[in-house]
């Protein structure tokens, strides 16, 4: 056995604990995303992205975890007849991913877009100084088309 000085031992132990902190942080983060997805599912939001894709997205944009849930709550309240779908879209011009909450309806009429805008406005008014946020929109597809 090689003798180790107490100072070297404390440095060694502190280096060992760093990965544990990272693992703990990582587990807490994964649990936070998992809890948000569970809450979305409880609100009947359909999640159309793989869990690992969502986790990777939220690692890059952790502040969007809470705002995505907030948007879904407002959308569910303001658009009770909509089927809500959480997706990650790729911007073809920039190759950047964006989190999108699609509101899809069995029927569309002249009030659909104003209703979505009203829900989006209610959400944006609560954001404060957040520089990024998830998008609420529609693609005018019926829920049956995407199921």
What order do the helices and strands come in, and which of them pair?
Blueprint: H1 6-42, E1 46-47, H2 51-60, H3 64-78, E2 83-90, E3 97-104, H4 112-125, E4 135-137, H5 143-146
Commentary on this structure:
With 147 residues, this protein is an alpha/beta fold. Helix content is 54%, strand content 14%. The protein is built from 5 helices and 4 strands. The chain has a 4-stranded mixed sheet with strand order 1-2-3-4. Helix 1 (6-42) runs parallel beside helix 3. It is globular and about 45 Å long.
Helix-strand sequence: HEHHEEHEH
The SS-based structural class is alpha/beta
The gyration radius over C-alpha positions equals 21 Å
- For the secondary structure, the number of strands is 4
Mean pLDDT: 82
Given as residue ranges, the uncertain stretches (5+ residues, pLDDT < 50) are: 1-14, 16-21
Distinct helical segment count: 5
Distance between the amino and carboxyl termini: 64 Å
**Main sheet record:** 4 strands, mixed
Keywords:
147 residues; alpha/beta; four-stranded mixed β-sheet; globular; disordered N terminus
Describe what is shown at a glance:
The protein is 54% helix and 14% strand. It is α/β, with parallel strands linked by helices and 147 residues long.
């Amino acid at each position: 056995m090689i003798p180790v000085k107490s100072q070297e031992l404390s440095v060694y132990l502190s280096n060992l604990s760093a990965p544990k902190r990272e693992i703990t942080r990582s587990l807490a983060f994964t649990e936070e995303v998992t809890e948000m997805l569970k809450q979305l599912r409880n609100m009947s939001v359909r999640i159309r992205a793989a869990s690992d894709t969502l986790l990777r997205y939220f690692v890059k944009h952790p502040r969007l975890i809470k705002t995505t849930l907030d948007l879904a709550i407002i959308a569910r309240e303001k658009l009770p007849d909509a089927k809500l779908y959480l997706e990650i879209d790729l911007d073809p011009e920039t190759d950047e991913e964006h989190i999108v909450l699609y509101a899809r309806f069995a029927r569309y009429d002249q009030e659909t877009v104003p209703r979505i805008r009203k829900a989006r406005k209610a959400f944006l008014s609560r954001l404060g100084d957040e520089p990024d946020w998830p998008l609420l929109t529609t693609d005018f597809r019926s829920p049956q088309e995407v199921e």
